[in-house]
Queue: 3 jobs
Job 1
Amino acid sequence: MTLPLDVTALEGASEAVDAVRRRLGRLDGVVNNAGLACRGVLEELSEEALRHIFEVNVFGPLRLCRAALPFFREQGSGIIVNVGSIASRMVIPVNGAYSATKAALEAFTDALRMEVAPFGVRVVLIKPGNIRTSFAEAAAERSRETLENPRSPYREIYRRYLAEATKARRHDPGPEVVAEAVLKALESPSPRAHYTVAAPWRFRLLMALGGNGRNTILGHVFRGRDAPPRKPS
């Protein structure tokens, strides 16, 4: 069965879960895959845009988890699979709002896993890298006015971000790799807490460098010629 679900609607999640239970008699698992991104430096993103991305990427999945958990406890079993992102750890300019939502999703997923384990409920986080879908294009279109503002003091950072994003997408895998990871988690009797999928070698290298090394390299990549020089300490 297929049901429309607006994850930002307060009652939408509980209504969808109730409908599945009435139709099928039980609920075996929940996959939270809805999400969006908005691009822009944090100074220039509107509060409305920030609230909306948290509503979709954090509060939406949390609502669905809360709606499903009473039924999972009653059954003594169930699995929740939340789709996060390596952006929760790999934070770059222009993508800070999205990274913040995925870090929040990762934190509540890890807490929830420990909270519901005594009831036989498993909780898994899938962390994809860049995937070849229309997601990035939709995010860029949603943020076009911000990214193309010729008067922005951050215009060089935007230019470099868009250039790097375009280069990276040439080698992105398709969504099948994420679907396979989700299916593996759903079917496993003892799934891992986290599944990292399609993480590029640059991510693995930068994570190995630690915070200072990452900041230095990413600063060189994104600090544009229009940026003011750093003051000596």
Note: The two ends are 62 Å apart (CA to CA).
Job 2
Amino acid sequence: VTVREEDAVNVWRPGRSDKDNFRPRPIIVRLTRRALRDEILHSSRIRRHTPESPGSLQTAPRIYVNERLTKFNRLLLQKTRENAKKLEWKFTWVKNGRVFVRRTEGSKVKVIRTEDDINSVFGSQPLNNPCI
């Protein structure tokens, strides 16, 4: 994927720098077009699952590309993952800002929009961690 300078509306690193932490802070990029964002996300997922070429002396640094979520959706994803792990569901993911979950490889995909959806999908009372 080719990204030109004019494709980025804004680029920044969130939070304050910490001299004791040697890990670089994440980089957030706001793009001009949603199609470009989708292409970058798709390409990064493909690259993530592609093995390094054998015999290569240099390995490329790992780059993680994720969607930026609202606070509510971030907490909803966290709570969904906790419940899915507890009940041994296999898949939890985000696409276009929406949270999805699936029990096994061939089972039906469920969309999680609210805390009530977590209750209905996972049954009984979920873990004590309200979204808001």
Note: The first helix runs from residue 34 to 48.
Job 3
Amino acid sequence: MKWLPGCLNAVTNQSAKPESIILVDNGSEDESVRWVSTNYSEVSIIKLDKNFGFARAVNAGIEKARTKYVALLNTDTVVDPNWLIYLWEILEQGSEKIGAVTPLMLSMQNPEIIDDAGDDLSWYGEASKSGHGLRVDGQIFSKEVFSPCAGAALYRRGF
């Protein structure tokens, strides 16, 4: 619940309004579901009766979404007002071979430091956060990565 207000405010105030906003409650025991339904009537809620883990919760939301693209966003994030349109434009204007895009994710505690810019894969199969710990230098950080960070990404459905 701590981060939820900032996250939902950012999502509902995007420059390009999402077709739908789905919140998957993964067995929370606080008042977050009630708070969201009271304050954000535009948000559809899927309430799981217990914590099934990240993958099952995400899949429940993806199954309900009926859109060409599906955005995943963890509740401990606050996105830029142009976050969705920027990622959408990359997928729309890019190659059909691009299945997903991820933004530059900055540290909440120190926004001058990169938390994640997608996931890299080493030659021996170990995944790591691309750009983690690097200082943001104001330049566009664009590169091909093994996979997006599912904490904030836009996926092309049916890829």
Note: Strands lie at 21-26, 43-48, 69-73, 100-101, 105-106, 114-116, 119-121, 127-129, 152-156.
